[in-house]
Write a structure and sequence with these properties.
It is built from 3 helices and 7 strands. The protein is of the alpha+beta class. It has 2 domains: about 55 residues; about 110 residues, no CATH class. Keywords: Membrane, Transmembrane, Transmembrane helix.
Length: about 170
Amino acid sequence: MSSRKKLALILSVVAVAVVGLAVWGWLYYRGMRALGEGLATGDGRGGGLFRAEKPTDTEARVNLLALCDAVQSYRDEHGTYLTAGPTPKEVPRGGELVEFPKEEPFQHIGFDPGEKVRFQYEVTVQESPVGEPEVSCLARGDFDGDGQNAVYRVRLDSNGMTSPIEVEREGE
């Protein structure tokens, strides 16, 4: 094969690869933009090529574990548990994204779930009958908007170990 034919073949392959990458990039951009629009409006619909998924309780499950880790880290560093919340003041309804206000207790323990959330978060500390602190990290949400809250709870024991996530009225 002559060097001109080899060069033409190589340039053709490169051109096809560049066009393919450009198309993939455009589809990816449109999909992420549509997903972002759906999340920003809180309606879960998104526009464009892809649709955002229906909100789930994944946010509560992930954030509860992060919240309990932050609470335990604060205790390890300062020797005491801090109570926090409930924040936001009202439980979000219908899966709507609401602003998560910057409140001092959450900032002190280092918990930041993002600017907008679909759940209310709280840390409670009570004394057990044997004098040990009982710590609960809570998330409350109302996806169907009927006024009944789903409640997600993780407990910290005196050794800093977390319980499995307990759920009351899942899907509410």
